[in-house]
Amino acid sequence: MGGVHLLAPELRIIGSFVRLYAQQVSKIVEFTTDCFHQDTGGAYFRFGRNPVLLPPKLARLIEQQIAQPAVNSAVSPHSTGPAFLFPGRPAGRPRSASGAQTLLRAHNLPTLAARNTAMIEAVADLPPIVVSDLFGITAGTAHSWAQLANDSWTDYLAACAATTPKGSGKLRKSP
Question: pTM score, two decimals?
Answer without folding.
Answer: 0.74
